[in-house]
Amino acid sequence: MSQFIRLILLFICSLVFLFFSVFDSFSYEDKFEKRFNLWPFVVYSKNKINKSKRLEIAGPFIYKYSYPEENGTSFRPIYSSVTTPKAKKVFFLSPLGIYRSDNETTTLKFVPLINKTWVKTPEEREEDKHFDLFPIFWGKTAQNETYGGFFPIYGKFKNRFGKREITFVLWPIYSKVEYKDHTASNYIWPFIRTVKDSIKSDSFEYGGFKIWPLFGHFKEGNTKREFFLWPFYIRSSFRDPEGDYSDRLIVFPFYIREDTDSYSKKIILWPFFQRVYAKDYNYKQLDAPWPFYRKIEGKDVEGRRYWPFYGYVKKNGSFDYFFIWPLYSYKEDHLTQKKLRFYEREHRFMIFSKYRYTEQTNKLLQKEYRIWPLVYGYENNHSTQFYYFPAILPFYDEGLERNYSAFLKLWEYYQKNDYIFFKLLWGLYRYEKFKQRSVQELAFIFRTVSGPDTNYIEILEGLLGLGKIEGKSRVKLFFINLVKGKNSGEE
Question: Its domain of life (predicted)?
Fold first, then answer.
């Protein structure tokens, strides 16, 4: 067995060495870019003008790109990440999992288990050194404290996710979370949890425990929470010295009551009968029963619903209605900011097909259409156009788009200013044009490059090449340059 593993590792290392050797020897290069195409195994391009790189491995399965202001990585269909100077987003098992982090907050969502947003502490905002490549992570705080781990075996976070410290051992068997004023310990999460004050052991400000879903009771500062046979009985309350408060009682599904300083809500036989009253806006909403009848009245708002035949909601600056749902619905929005006026209209047919048009001060800002499941198109006033076929995904979700859409598109067309990119059959054929320069490729079978002082054709990624590159003659046979003018642009 060990001999077999060594042979496998040797084979992989040989492939890696062969790839880099072939890449360096046989790739096409001029003063604009460097290209290498062994589709569907590897496709690489490096643009020397806009400092961008693209790498595709195994067709649409692995994709990595980098631009001066953004870079991303995808291991489809499982994982995708995108990083900019201001934020990072990770999409995993889409649409179930998403992780977002910027200078202010961190959000982790995994349906149906986790949906939390943490406001970063000042210490965490100062932190600029951490690395996450699931399941491995490590980092260093602004106070030069190191942490790391291998999920779910063992690990520790410091000043992450709005917490002082998070420790786990064989998660979900054990984990401990340290907050500013209290500490929570989880055993076989989410079933057992205890909370205690971090400063005073005899304090009643923080404390509690739960054995989920049987019973739980917590007091954390101004907040109290308790449940019995979750989700059938849940109660929570919050009050602060400034007068803000909330009180929620759930006896599911028979009765739900929620009172806050801004609104009150009562639901009987959820979700059928509901009444909402917002004090500040004199807003009243009645569902009796949902979804068939709804009445809305309030300051600058009015609505009626007689589902599925007709319904509307009218507000200051917006109006939407439906007719014989899901056959047709319409929505419009108006917004004025100083001298700028925004106007948006959206028509939907059978829910997923839509046409949306946005104006800014009577000029086109953007328009978008989807004729599901056939085609999708987008245009804006910055000379950007984007189309693809077919449009299998019925709506836009960034995680679904990054993790799945590459498998579903037979052709794509993208244009921005003087740049055009067209891809057919997952990249079997691709065409790129920038101003007067263009490149066409049919996998590794042939490549043509045309432009000022350039007219070159290449067969089988350099087995045979003939033409002129940047005014210099070029002849390539069996991957060797037989005629190569000086200053041809190669480095």
Answer: Bacteria
Is 489:31 a contact under the CB 8 Å cutoff? yes
Interval 431-440: pLDDT, tens: 999 989 999 9
Summarize pLDDT for 57-98 with one digit per residue, the tens: 999 999 999 999 999 999 999 999 999 998 999 999 999 999
